[in-house]
Amino acid sequence: xxxxxxxxxxxxxxxxxxxxxxxxxxxLFYGRTYRIICWSVCSSIRKxxxxxxxxxxxxxxxxxxxxxxxxxxxxxFLMFAMQxxxxxxKVETNINSALDTWTEKPAELIVVALNSTDPLDAVxxxxxxxIVPIAVIVEQIPEKLHAELILSGADYVxxxxxxxxxxxxxxxxxxxxxxxxxxxxxxxxQHEEVxxxxxxxxxxxxxxxxxxxxxxxxxxxxxLMINRGNVLPTETIVELVWGYTGxxxxxxxxxxxxxxxxxIEPNPNTPxxxxxxxxxxxxxxxxxT
Length: 289
Known about the structure:
Strand order of the largest sheet: 2-1-3-4-5
CATH superfamily of the largest domain: Response regulator
Number of strands: 12
Radius of gyration: 24 Å
């Protein structure tokens, strides 16, 4: 017997329709006999669905995705592919509008399919703010540019024309990776008066109230604290925080370090915890550490 795979969104709709609306409508308008028939029919449908389609009727929280595209026709195609991969998708037409709302409405996966923007510039701009997986859809490009996109932070590069089946498969793979990243837990860290709480993604210094950290700020502080007393080169920081090779991204790290210093340093202009090692990188810990 052949097994079939239904998108999570369709599974949820089937569940709600069959096991909620039909059941309660019959129970509302008919008596005991129809109640027995209702439960029997619903139970039979559930067994057939489990046997033939191999999915369970459970509630789930769909992962959120961001689609950035300026082509309305391709948007329809990509929305269908992303929904098939079980993604709840929001659409933006350019990088700036996507980043403007990122803090309030972040996503766990980004798909970029822009015709009016250089794909390498788009990836660079996104990686200044986000750490989630990025899929990029492009026209035919040279192998060198393809490699540069991956090294700059793209997790998957699809070349038009692309296969719907392969695109959905790759998106599902990225979703699994993103889910594993989100579920990964870290123990609390403390150095002197700095307390890092990974479960809440907050940092507190002394008796001050805990401050919420962005994903990038948390990764930077966590990387520095577990390597306390050791110098982390700038390139290494980019790989640890953003997940790609970091040549030429000193300004990227500098900006993030400055934002983090504002949250943990008594005086950001004379840092006590995150100290700069000129032309090398950064080290966490006071001079006496």
